[in-house]
Each structure stands twice: as C-alpha cells, then as structure tokens.
C-alpha cells in the first residue's frame, strides 16, 4: 500500500520546491496523523515536529476545537462567497478580530488563500492606490536580499532566493533588492547600530537611484524566515519602517511566518513597536487547519482607495475562496486558542528554554551560529568555527540532515546546505523543547560520524 502510494506520487504529483528528477529518486514521505507536537508517518514512525509543518501549525496537531469549528461551518453552509455584496458570518467576525489584534489602524482585511496571493494582492492594491491617488509613477518596489515573499508570478520577484528566480524570468524591472542584515556573515561587522545604519543607508541609496517619485513600497519580514532565519538587531525593523515613511514610500510587513506568536508577541511587528501600512498574514492564521491568508491595510489607505476610485467601478480583484467560511471558522478558533486558550502565553513561557537549549549547541564543533527570536530559530553549520567556513557543497550536508532528521525522529528544515531551521508549535511543553534539542544534538553528533564531514571539521 505504502509502496503503491510512493510510486503513484512519483508518477503523478509535482511537489513544490524540489528538483523534479531529484524527487523521483528520493520519493515521498507521507505523514498520516499528528497530536500536539508529534506526527506519525505512513511507515509508523513518530517524529517530533520542530518545524510546525511549514512553520504554520502554530497551535500544534489534533486541536479538536478547530476541527469542530470547521465541521460546524461546513455543515451549516460550506461556501458563501465574499464576491459582490454577499458574505458570511465567520469571515466578518474574523476580520473584526484581526483588526482588534493588529497594530495601529490596520483595520481593513482582504482574505486570500495563503501568503503568496496575499503578497500579490498587496502588489495590486499598492499599484491601484498610487494610480487612483494621482501618483501613477510610483511603481517600483524594494525588498531584501534573502527575503521571501511567496511564489506568485509577481511576488516571486520580490522574493530574493536564487532558485525562485533562475529560469523564471524574474524579478521584473520594477523589483529591486537591498542587502539584509546578517550579523554572522555581515561584512559591515557586528555592531547593531552600525548594521541598522547600513540598512537605512542602503534603502536611501536605492530610492535615490530609482528616484523617490518612482518608488511605491518596501517589503520586509520582521525576521527573514526562508532566507535562513536572519534575526536582525533590535530596532532594525522600526528603523526601516521610519526610513520608509521619511522617504514617502509604503511599508509592508510580511508577517506570514512571524504572525500569531511565532516570535513572541501576536505579530512580529510588535517586537519593535512597528505599525506598518500593510501587513500580510497566512500560516498561523488558521494554524494551517484550512488554507487562508490575508492582507491588512490601514484605514487611511482604505479610505484613499475607496474615495479615489470611480464610484461606478467594481475594483477588479478577488478570489472565489476569499473569506471562505470554513477557513474563517478555523482562523477564529485558532486565534481563540492563541489568546484565551493560552497558547501565546505558553509560547512565551517555553521560548527562553528553547533559546537556552539552542545556544547550548554552540559548543558543538559543527555549530557556528545560533539565531533565535521566540520560537523561530536557525542553527548555522560550519566546518571551521574560527574562520566561519561554510561546509563544502560536496559534503551534501542537507542530504545528511534529511536522513538524520528521520533517523533521530526530529523534523526541522535543512536550508541551503548549511542551516537547520526550527519553528516548534506554541503548544510544546518544556519537555518537548528538551526533546527537540537533545535529538538535534544527536543529529549533529551523527553528522560528525560521516567521514568526509569529520575530516573537513
Ligand atoms: N511570505 C513569507 C514571509 C513566507 O514565509 C511565505 C511562505 N513560506 C509566503 C509569503 C508565501 O506563503 P504561501 O506559501 O502561503 O503562499
């Protein structure tokens, strides 16, 4: 049965973000059930999921109240469009709840199916905004190198990871990138104030190069996720927000990963006291029990678009599943679990133990850097700690990590051949956190048993 599925998968299912031939050679690992922080696969192995699926199952697996909320909604009415002037109760209530929780006056919500289409919605809304408010030249958008803003046709150009651009004719000439802070490998040094000043200057220089009158927006993650969990110095996000305001460009906080308690507060922006002009959400919004994302915009931006747009024109943007009632029901209940259910508080409680455990790995010969904020972290591997030498590609660290992750029964994400990313569910106990750290340390120890890696280290 399992062999059949693996064969069928190879024959018919195209997986995201793999080499297609590489996937055929490796095959699929099918997960079949989950409870709390643990998942079980089709072969019967149970692993602790230190990555919450794809940094999305923030509430953990088996949350019966989310399942019940979805089931109730599907039974009552499985679909009620948000198109035109129709609507449904869960979407309206969720929009209100998000407005209560979001920073500042981000009080208007457009629902999407995930993060990529939230980013694409933002790109369209920003263009529309400047067109209807009489500044049609403002079209260029800036994001950070190593940033991730999804996979949509336009958003993938703001993403700055090589394999999202190569052979995709991306980015477009209206999309630009500036260096992101990466203290461990930052040629500008380790001083936080200097790193912040360099980022602000890079933005100013880029805007000057394009011409301020042509620049629409800056897209930024409070902590860059897919680029390697690059935790910026405290105050960096605020400095970028303020610089964007000074330069008369919009500031979008991409909170697809950092939202919903991932870095401590409900939203990553709050860490630095930032109120963005726009905010994108997904993943933890429903704890991935249903697909859903959202774009939130400020009251001012909403009003400018509403008043600037011809009153007889229906603004042509929407998805069949915008505000899907079952997804909205899942979102509302997930948020109830984060707040009244105490998950956000639990995440904050276990975060110091997580940070302490990971930092403790710095004594390992292969660990060069540990970056952590809240329950979001990366461990960067090196073969020479003093020289901060990246492991040579020949060592195939990612492949070994994938194998060992399975053997040691701990799921994390192997990035770009020298990093492991962590994003455990907020429901973890301190024992779960200890299990993650212990198992990951044994992954590292086993890595050292690989002859070529031991020789290189
Ligand atoms: N923005 C960020 C910051 C992300 O991390 C992701 C996904 N990892 C996206 C956007 C895209 O979200 P989705 O995969 O739901 O389309």
Automatic annotation (TrEMBL):
InterPro entries: Aminotrans_3, Aminotrans_3_PPA_site, PyrdxlP-dep_Trfase, PyrdxlP-dep_Trfase_major, PyrdxlP-dep_Trfase_small
A single MF term (Gene Ontology): transaminase activity
Stored Pfam families: Aminotran_3
PANTHER family: AMINOTRANSFERASE, AMINOTRANSFERASE CLASS-III
Transmembrane segments: none
Cofactors that this protein relies on: pyridoxal 5'-phosphate
Family statement: Belongs to the class-III pyridoxal-phosphate-dependent aminotransferase family.
Keyword tRNA processing: no
Record protein name field: Aminotransferase class-III
Keywords: Aminotransferase, Plasmid, Pyridoxal phosphate, Transferase
